[in-house]
Design goal:
five-stranded parallel sheet; elongated; kinase activity; PrkA_C; PrkA family serine protein kinase; Prk_AAA
């Protein structure tokens, strides 16, 4: 048998290793009390456990943005990166969400608020909510995230009318075993726990037992003459509690039904009619703790499309969040402990925002904006992830394809800049980090201007990544049907153009503007394709390196006010200002900004030298582009441009050499032919007319 094949024994062992060792064990209350003294974090509340969960999987600090990136979102360690999130705006939203949970963990107020994720369709808020639930399940399986509850045992030995089917009853609300201790004695325990707790919060628990457990406790205390120890030793077992959405245990999702059929019992639970004949109508044992708030206790409640609920139905959420209790109809109140998360799209939010009768609800929510991504290269990573997770092994994605798709999406989301000193495309590039310090563009000011002009926030409107991803998928299938094994920007642009009008979520008033943006993206791609063709026609890596080293020698001499050795004569000479400007002018750096650029490049080289890295112009995007453009100017006189216009004048060796050069840049051979045809004529035309 092949040694790489997993046998049943292997699979069984892997499964057993993956579950907590004490998952099936029943422990005594005395054992639990000692465990809590040893590790007080076991007794955390829901906000505290969720807050620690985010830190458990790792963090990284984005100094430039001032944002903590949580690795469960940026790397997705438990799913091998399958569900990573991209974009500064998204990580800012996640950072804000976690901060609210952490504030709630410290008892600062957000623990009594609904965390409302607000964003346009397809912005990732639902997926983030899903990820939080998956990671919470995983965290409670680990030692750092463990929690416990209890079950009542041997009840028929004492309670005469107890249904034999209910001889063992798990805590209906999965409460922490500490709740079994009366409040006065519990406070003494908690005080000692906090004395040894190493955490930014304190353990707190003033919950009452749920009505059924309170009934059992009262009945058993009466039987044992108020001997609590006898009750806990004879009738209570402590068991490991693991969150599971499938089992509706500590994780629950709630979806609005038809407005006419909304029933509060879906949230709070209802009478267990099968037990009415056994216990009677007013008996707490005849209640069914199957409401969404009951199932979510000790963990996460997720409300989908929350603002689609009727106003009256939302009052249950107000009480649950503010008072941290629920009040089922004709039943005693029940304490709850959970992080309540809601999600809503923009139309519902706008509708409810101006409703004065919603003031109480709005006051009890903490809104977290979940905008679209505004950096087009980060946006392209979303599509790249989509393709990684799909079965498209034989489709070559040509250079710029996903980036230009991302650029189109971003253009529809950002606010048109004021004034005429910067275009919308330049603003998108600035957000993408392509504007250097030497450029006269203030990105921070652009962001502030965008936020001030946007209805709610920049990035809360526009075309979703979902629409663009769907069109990329259609373009791939269309290419497959046509027998093409590559996907280029031109393919994707065609699908955008054809299907913008057919997409139901795009307002008709925006179509003309979006078509204009698509033309702007076409123009940007044309410029990049022309650069790639020029690169293929004239590129020489060794010459780039040599010219780069020469440029840096002369820059250093210029900055130090010294001389440089002539390559041919060996004599010392002044820095060659004509040569320096011939490079800098390729980036359109004006005379009065040349010193800034030279100092910037000098600082970059010095920084790399301190880090032990050799000079390589390929590692500096601006310098590389300048040197490539200068090389083009130097070599273009030897290129047969008429051959680019007329295929009849191009011999096979010459064409193949150009195609080979494009393949080295990442093109497929078919894609190289397309871009050579698309941009080659533009290159030739501009040079022949010059």
């Amino acid at each position: 048998m092949n040694g790489d094949i997993e046998t049943l024994a292997d699979l069984s062992k892997h499964y057993k290793d993956s579950v907590p060792a004490d998952l099936r064990e029943a422990k005594s209350f005395d054992w639990y009390l000692q465990e809590v003294y040893d590790d007080p974090r076991i007794a955390r509340n829901a906000h505290q456990r969720v807050a620690d969960m985010f830190d458990h999987y790792g963090t990284a600090y984005d100094e430039e943005a001032g944002v903590v990136e949580y690795l469960m979102a940026s790397e997705d360690p438990i799913h091998d990166g399958e569900n990573t999130f991209y974009g500064r705006e998204v990580h800012e939203s996640i950072h804000e969400f976690v901060n609210k949970v952490k504030s709630g963990a410290r008892g600062l107020g957000p623990e009594k608020r609904i965390k409302l994720l607000l964003g346009p369709v397809g912005s990732g808020k639902s997926h983030f909510d899903w990820m939080v639930r998956r990671y919470f399940e995983d965290y409670t399986m680990r030692d750092d995230g463990r929690m416990y509850t209890f079950r009542w045992t041997n009840l028929t030995d004492v309670i005469r009318d107890q249904d034999p089917a209910d001889a063992v009853v798990q805590s209906p609300m999965n409460q922490d075993p500490l709740v079994l201790i009366p409040q006065e004695q519990r406070d003494v325990i908690i005080e000692r726990l906090n004395e040894q707790l190493d955490a930014p919060y304190t353990i707190r628990n003033d919950q009452a037992l749920d009505p059924a457990s309170e009934f059992y406790m009262d009945t058993l205390l009466a039987y044992y003459d108020d001997d609590l120890q006898q009750v806990l030793e004879n009738h209570v077992e402590v068991i490991r509690l693991v969150a599971s959405e499938n089992k509706r245990q500590c994780v629950e999702t709630f979806e609005p039904k038809d407005k006419k059929n909304q029933d509060e019992t879906e949230l709070t639970g209802d009478v267990n009619y099968s037990k009415l004949a056994v216990y009677g109508e007013s008996d707490p044992r005849a209640f069914d703790y199957s409401g969404a708030f009951c199932n979510a206790n000790r963990g996460l409640f997720s409300g989908e499309e929350l603002l689609k609920l009727q106003r009256e139905f939302l009052y249950d959420f107000l009480h649950a969040s503010q008072e941290q209790t629920i009040k089922p109809s004709n039943n005693p109140r029940i304490d709850i402990d959970q992080v309540i998360v809601g999600r809503t799209n923009m139309p519902e939010y706008r509708e409810k925002k101006g409703d004065e009768k919603m003031e109480a609800f709005n006051d009890r929510t903490k809104r977290i904006d979940f905008p679209y991504v505004l950096e087009y290269e980060q946006e392209s990573e979303i599509y790249r992830k989509m393709l990684r997770n799909a079965d498209v092994p034989d489709m070559h994605i040509e250079p710029h394809t996903l980036e230009m798709a991302g650029l189109f999406g971003v253009l529809t989301r950002i606010v048109e800049p004021d004034g005429s000193n910067i275009t919308l495309t330049q603003k998108a590039k600035a957000y993408n980090g392509e504007i250097d310090d030497a450029d006269d563009v203030d990105v921070k000011k652009l962001r502030e201007e965008g936020e001030s002009k946007a209805d709610i926030a920049e990035g809360m409107e526009g075309i979703s990544a979902r629409f663009i991803g769907d069109e990329i998928a259609e373009a791939i299938m269309d290419s497959t049907h046509r027998g093409r094994s590559y996907l280029s920007p031109l393919n994707v642009f065609s699908h955008f153009e054809e299907n913008l009008e057919n997409h139901g979520s795009i307002p008709e008033d925006n179509l003309e503007r979006y078509h204009r943006y698509l033309e702007m993206v076409r123009e940007e791609y044309k410029e990049r394709a022309i650069e790639d063709v020029r690169h293929a026609l004239a590129y020489d890596l060794d010459e780039i390196q040599r010219q780069g080293e020469k440029y840096m020698d002369h820059v250093m001499a210029y900055i130090d006010d010294s001389t440089v050795q002539d390559e041919l004569t060996g004599r010392e000479q002044e820095p060659d200002e004509k040569f320096l400007r011939s490079v800098e002018e390729k980036l359109e750096i004006p005379e009065d900004r040349k010193d800034d650029f030279r100092q910037e490049v000098s600082n970059w080289v010095s920084r790399r030298a301190r880090e032990g890295q050799a000079f390589d112009p390929q590692d500096n995007d601006r310098l590389r582009r300048a040197l490539e453009r200068k090389l083009w100017e130097d070599k273009k006189h030897n290129i047969n441009f008429s051959a680019l216009v007329s295929a009849n004048e191009l011999d096979d060796d010459e064409r193949n050499a150009w195609i080979d050069a494009l393949v080295e840049q990442g093109y497929s051979r078919e894609g190289a032919r397309e871009v050579l045809e698309f941009a080659g004529a533009e290159v030739a035309k501009s040079e022949l007319e010059a």
